[in-house]
From TrEMBL:
GO aspect biological process, one term: phosphorelay signal transduction system
Protein name (record): Response regulator
PANTHER family, A to Z: HYBRID SIGNAL TRANSDUCTION HISTIDINE KINASE J
Lineage: Bacteria, Pseudomonadati, Bacteroidota, Sphingobacteriia, Sphingobacteriales
Start and end residues of each Response regulatory domain: 14-127
Cross-referenced SMART domains: REC
Gene3D superfamilies for the chain: 3.40.50.2300
Swiss-Prot/TrEMBL keywords: Phosphoprotein, Two-component regulatory system
PTM-bearing positions, type 4-aspartylphosphate: D63
Top-level lineage group: Bacteria
CDD domains xref list: REC_hyHK_CKI1_RcsC-like
Cited Pfam families: Response_reg
Length: 129
């Protein structure tokens, strides 16, 4: 029996991480490491939009406060390209989750410092269920 390893590779879920803080990227990568997802890193909103167009991620993890283009605008543009792609915002924002859902179309808000268990629950619900 022959295995098509390319097929297995294609099955991997792709997550776009949009974060300008290197330490936050490392924390998210470490949490996601056991899942074997394909991770794509963007360092600001402009970078995120370009990478989303090329990569078509299954999930976007978005910071809100970044240089060049913030996560508010980037989230709106990504949702305009793909309304079905879930966006989890991880931020220190004081803006209510309901407002962010209504104004920019995000799906979930996790406050910093990150609750790892809650984050893992979202990952399971959105990509592994």
């Amino acid at each position: 029996m022959k295995f098509n390893f390319k097929k297995i590779e294609e099955i991997k879920k792709k997550i776009l991480i949009v974060e300008d803080e290197p330490m936050s990227i490392l924390v998210i990568q470490k949490i996601l490491a056991p899942y074997q997802f394909q991770l794509v890193i963007a360092v600001n909103g402009l970078d995120a939009i370009e990478k989303f167009k090329k990569e078509k991620a299954d999930l976007v993890i978005m910071d809100l406060y970044m240089p060049e283009m913030d996560g508010f605008e980037a989230s709106k543009r990504i949702k305009a390209m793909s309304a079905d792609t879930p966006i989890i915002v991880i931020s220190t924002t004081d803006i209510a989750e309901d407002e962010l859902k209504k104004d920019i179309g995000i799906d979930y808000l996790l406050k910093k410092p990150l609750n790892i268990k809650k984050f893992q629950d979202f990952i399971h619900m959105l990509l592994l269920a």
